[in-house]
Design goal:
264 residues, mainly beta, 1 helix, 18 strands, globular
Length: 264
């Protein structure tokens, strides 16, 4: 038995760690903001949020009366790159909130601000840029947009779109530099937005994720990484991002897609 003890001790050091004991390994320059074990560092209701299979998991019963969020408490972000793997059930709706603001005056666990949408049922919504409780749809998926100084978003170009099915893991990426916002899903760029609206835009705020009103759903996030970029990146100006004469207005929320969009 004495001869076995050194061997057992050696095995204890050489056997691989169980998956649940491994901390996520961030890419170079990135920091993990979810530890895969518990909700330490996050603030939200345990009625909706938990850790399941190493994932930050949100669930609803279909009776949610308004959208709820869980917020990362590691500080505000200004210029940054975010990467995270996301899986949502069919019919589910969620979003990656960034440069957001916690608003308990509007309701429990409410966060306003920019959002990269997670809506696999809508090819024109999945990965779009939305502003929660603000200017709402700023760019549909597949649109290059300039938001003018008065807050009106204009489509100035198009991007190819792709379907990203529910119940599968997808890589979401958000890059924000000054007032330039870009989103990707699985390496496919979904929006490119320049926000010239000094009154409506936000230049820093919190990161949060959402459970949405609507059908019963489950949303899961894992490998949640953020890289902070220099705080003094320049803001693009109207002269650098002019709205061309043939630009068309972004379709308002609930307006569907009109047969003929209004030109500038």
């Amino acid at each position: 038995m004495r001869r076995l003890l050194p061997l057992l001790s050696l095995l204890a050091f050489t056997l691989p760690l169980a998956a649940e004991d491994k901390a996520p390994s961030p890419p170079e320059g990135f920091t993990a903001i979810f530890n895969g074990k518990n909700l330490d560092g996050w603030s939200g209701s345990d009625k909706y949020w938990s850790v399941e299979d190493g994932c930050l998991t949100g669930v609803t019963d279909g009776k949610l009366d308004y959208n709820r969020f869980i917020t990362w408490k590691g500080g505000q972000v200004k210029n940054f790159e975010l990467r995270v793997k996301v899986k949502v059930t069919k019919g589910g709706n969620s979003g990656l909130q960034y440069r957001g603001k916690e608003r308990p005056d509007l309701g429990e666990w409410v966060v306003t601000g920019y959002q990269c949408d997670v809506v696999p049922a809508r090819e024109d919504y999945n990965g779009m840029l939305y502003e929660e409780r603000g200017r709402r749809i700023l760019a549909h998926t597949g649109e290059k947009v300039v938001i003018d100084p008065q807050g009106q978003p204009w489509v100035v170009g198009k991007l190819p779109t792709q379907v990203f099915p529910p119940d599968e893991w997808h890589d979401y990426r958000v890059l924000v530099e000054g007032n330039h916002h870009q989103h990707w899903i699985d390496g496919v760029q979904t929006v490119d937005v320049i926000d010239l609206d000094e009154t409506g835009r936000a230049l820093e705020g919190v990161i949060a994720v959402q459970v949405h009103v609507g059908p019963v759903m489950k949303i899961q996030y894992k490998d949640f990484f953020v890289k902070h970029l220099p705080a003094d990146l320049p803001l693009l100006t109207p002269a650098q991002a002019p709205v061309p004469a043939d630009a068309v207005k972004v379709v308002p929320q609930g307006g569907g897609k009109p047969k003929k969009q209004e030109s500038k």
